[in-house]
Amino acid sequence: MNPILEVRHLSISFLQYESGFRRRMLTVIRDLSLTVLPGEIVAVVGSSGSGKSLLAHGILGLLPYNASMQGSILYDGTPLDPARAARLRGKEISLVPQGVNYLDPLMTVGAQLRKGERGAEIKKRCREVLARYGLKEETQSLYPFELSGGMARRVLISSAVLQSPRLILADEPTPGLDAQSAGRILGHFREMAKGGAGVLFITHDLDLALTVSNRVVVLYAGETVEEASASDFASGKLRHPYTQALWKALPCGEFTAVSGAQPYPGEIEQGCLFAPRCPHCRAQCTSGEIPYHPAGNGWVRCLLSPQEEE
Amino acid sequence: MRHRLQFAGKKLLRMILLLLGVSLAAFLLMNASPLDPLQTNIGQAALGSMSQEQIEVLEAYWGKNTPPAERYLQWLGSALRGDFGDSLLYRRPVLQIIGERLGGSLWLMVSAWILSGVLGFLLGAAAGWTRGKWPDRLIRGYCLLISSTPVFWLAILLLLVFAVWLGILPIGLSVPIGADAASVTLADRLAHAILPALTLSVTGVANIALHTREKMIDVLESDYVLFARARGESKSSILLRHGLRNMALPAITLQFGSISEIIGGSVIAEQVFSYPGLGQAAVSAGLGSDMPLLLGITVVTAALVFGGNFIADLLYGVIDPRIRRRAAHK
């Protein structure tokens, strides 16, 4: 099966003004690669500040004016340049954003869903989609401030599926929801994947990612450190020390945390970004580029071979 | 309905307190003024040739012998009954003079108010939309230049260019000099009002445009515009559906808030162009120690400014569903 989305060696940097007129490029996402197959949910997991949202904005061609992007993004086998992204977004590619502030505060839900289109056709479709997520007809005449947190999220999902997209970018669609509501929301994503769409599920919550996704891509300080199938976690086949640390920190793991914090962009110039916190760090880890290479049925960015680890 | 009445009632009470405060402040300032009404209005030479009795009559007329508290309370007492007294300079009822002068000023101020509002909004929106590109730089440069230019200087500059060098517009006053009142045409009046109105508009534009630009940038960087773009909405749809809607609230605040600036500016512009409007009357009342006229003008303009802000408050409820629906739920 051909991937619906392929991201290769993607880097996103910002032009930042330091004191005075000195400028510098701040690389927020570095050498990120991933693929999403149709009918598959791929989770991108990383703690906040690892550049997750920018990934979604970059794919959509919606980066801020002072950002620049290197590497390549392929959608359905062909490069996704900004012009093509502009044509496809809202039609074949949908974004499910984080929360209610992504809705225009002064416009009713219905008017926003319809995007200015008129006619019985669109009205009917809105009604159907809202009903699918358990929202009543009256929801359409509400303003965003009148929605509860769960309702707002269902409205945002409705807006994404209104056009039957082939690729869905879900950017932290469940924060602040209890496990039951989050599970319900994630169920909707699973349905969409069953319908043949590829879903890129961006989250900081590994636990949640594991319950819903087929594969997990782990980001650390804006860099992909590992790509593993969801089953690799429980079966102890993880390749990167950071992923192992994430897994151990979960209640279903050992429930222990690794000390230290993720570095800021630009803080570590070369070598492995995780080196200062890594229990297996060696001399060659702190210099040069660490290659991202296939390992088993996944990928890893680490010099440590699995045998050594044992 | 009940909350509307409550809202209006609160506002009315606030307005009464404001007008009281404003009139008292104006009175105290005037009272503290070092100008001697007799010296300024009659002149040293004339006073010298008068008898003591005549001077005493004049002092009584200008209220020099009455204690300030008594004078203010007297004024307040009759003002509450709707009688704003007679102007000391013009020897006619204050309200009559204000009515006349306001008639001259009002359409000057209204046209400047509308022009600066519309132009400021359009320029600001255009600058925010093209942020960083040449239209933005041009508009911003213009606004900063105008904001740092004093109104009177700009008025003199316009006077110099259009009335002196080009000679296409009259140099001052509201009607041709020496013309019979009956023979003055509407075209004459228009021609005389162009320069003062232009002065007021040009200065008003800068402030409104700069604020609108900031708001436009805020809106364009907002999460909801990002999401609208992610959903494939076109640029024009984003501007018309989200941009204008979300900029309407600050625009209304600015537009109605600028009434005070227009009135303040008209005082200066009318002085430069010798335009016989309310602003000029305020200046002569202030300099001539004409207490009843000055207090009358102060109260009327304060009420106008307050009225403008009140209308803005009412319009918020029409535009912003958060205000409208919350109020309805109560």
Report on the structure:
The complex is a heterodimer of chains A (310) and B (330). Chain A is an alpha/beta fold and 310 residues long. In chain A, 29% of the residues lie in helices and 25% in strands. Chain A has helices at residues 52-60, 82-88, 109-114, 120-132, 149-161, 179-194, 206-212, 230-234, 241-249, 306-309; strands at residues 5-17, 23-36, 41-45, 67-75, 78-79, 93-96, 167-171, 198-203, 215-220, 223-229, 293-295, 298-300. An eight-stranded mixed β-sheet of chain A has the order 6-7-8-3-9-10-12-11, with helices on both faces. In chain A, strands 2-1-4-5 form a four-stranded antiparallel β-sheet, covered by helices on one side. In chain B, 78% of the residues lie in helices and 0% in strands. Chain B is built from 14 helices and no strands. Chain B has helices at 2-32, 37-42, 44-48, 52-61, 68-80, 94-129, 134-147, 151-165, 186-220, 223-230, 235-272, 278-287, 291-319, 321-329. The radius of gyration of chain B is 24 Å and the shape is globular. At the A-B interface, loops of A face helix 10, helix 11 and helix 14 of B.
Topology:
The complex is a heterodimer of chains A (310) and B (330).
Chain A: E1 5-17, E2 23-36, E3 41-45, H1 52-60, E4 67-75, E5 78-79, H2 82-88, E6 93-96, H3 109-114, H4 120-132, H5 149-161, E7 167-171, H6 179-194, E8 198-203, H7 206-212, E9 215-220, E10 223-229, H8 230-234, H9 241-249, E11 293-295, E12 298-300, H10 306-309
Parallel strand pairs in A: 3-8, 3-9, 6-7, 7-8
Antiparallel strand pairs in A: 1-2, 1-4, 4-5, 9-10, 10-12, 11-12
Helix pairs in contact in A: 4-5, 5-6
Chain B: H1 2-32, H2 37-42, H3 44-48, H4 52-61, H5 68-80, H6 94-129, H7 134-147, H8 151-165, H9 186-220, H10 223-230, H11 235-272, H12 278-287, H13 291-319, H14 321-329
Helix pairs in contact in B: 1-13, 6-7, 6-9, 6-11, 6-13, 7-9, 8-9, 8-11, 9-11, 10-11, 11-12, 11-13, 12-13, 13-14
